[in-house]
Amino acid sequence: MLVSSTMNLPLYSVRMRAALGGRHLAGAERLVAGAAVSKVTAELTQRAMLCSDGPADEIHCSIERIESARVRYACLPDVSTSQVDDWRQGRRLASQLLTRAGVCAEVASRALALLADGAGPGGAVMRGAVIMDAVNGERLEADPRRGVRVSRMDITAALRPRLVKSLAAAGLGHHRVLEALTLAGKVLLAPGLVAELCWSDDPAYSAGYVAAPQAGYQRIDILKPAGDRRGGRVFFVEREAAPLSALVDYLERQAILFDAAGAIAAPEKWRAGDA
Ligand code: WAQ
Ligand code: MG
């Protein structure tokens, strides 16, 4: 009998980050079979060359083998989308969703202001994410220029075409949705994680999300003014739940492959009075 043994083949973490004039431009991370490494590396490099603010003047790719026994399999979070009138309303909704997830109201406001102003030194965009204490708003990441970069996650080759199809059917065909959903899926399984807030640094992409373990991946279609180059990610944590070192190690190093998707809801108009 022929048994497919792809589950036992080693996987490769492929990571790309690109900069222009010392400023972070783009990054991406995949986890793929050996046979796909060169193709995926070329795709990610091409993205850095074609990105709207590019081409990059510096691109770093790193490729590293991961033993299949170390890979964890999981299901992606449910996806919902709220349509708002403008970014102010979007941020009010984000604040509500964060407090509902267990982030203190003042901490939620602080995080929104931080991403709005640029979370890196001098208002720069960070390459990775801010880690913030959900109770007192303290920033916990060791390097506020770099932040913590989540990697070693992807969706399986079997799930990918199905997911691409169901996202497209819900009007969510942009590659950013699939990538952010994968990243948030990994983040939500982190020890001590309360919620994630994110919007893109791409001036042409205004959507973002609040993700939380119970509520899933909650998209908000407008979280910043058109043309704004500032964006970022904040991971809110409950400090007592896990040591920071364990959290960062999980985010940076634990390999996770998503082999199942959650429910994908059609976009709904948000009314400010909604509970
Ligand atoms: N780990 C940690 N932080 C990251 C990572 C990562 N792997 N990748 C990006 N960031 C941070 C970094 O500060 C970026 O400046 C910021 O997030 C935004 O990155 O459902 O495209 O790649 O419609 O611009 C969200 C909405 C899109 C998608 C997010 O992020 C949807 C997006 P970008
Ligand atoms: Mg990116």
Structural overview:
By secondary structure, the protein is an alpha/beta fold. The chain is 28% helix and 28% strand. The chain is built from six helices and 13 strands. The protein has helices at residues 37-50, 87-101, 105-117, 159-169, 175-188, 244-253; strands at residues 11-20, 23-33, 58-66, 72-75, 79-83, 130-133, 153-155, 193-199, 208-212, 216-220, 232-237, 256-260, 268-269. A seven-stranded mixed sheet has the order 6-11-8-9-10-5-13, sandwiched between helices. Strand 8 and strand 9 (208-212) form a beta hairpin. Helix 2 (87-101) crosses helix 3 (105-117). The longest helix is centred in the middle third of the chain and has 15 residues, at 87-101. Pimeloyl-AMP (WAQ) is lined by residues 27, 29, 125-126, 128-129, 149-151, 176-177, 180, 183, 198, 200-202, 207-209, 219, 231-233.
Key phrases:
three-stranded antiparallel β-sheet; alpha/beta; 275 residues; disordered N terminus; 6 helices; binds magnesium ion; 28% strand
Quick rundown:
With 275 residues, the chain is an alpha/beta fold. The protein has six helices and 13 strands.
Q: Which hetero compounds are present in the coordinates?
A: pimeloyl-AMP, magnesium ion
Radius of gyration: 18 Å
Provide the succession of SSEs: EEHEEEHHEEHHEEEEHEE
Low-confidence stretches: 1-5
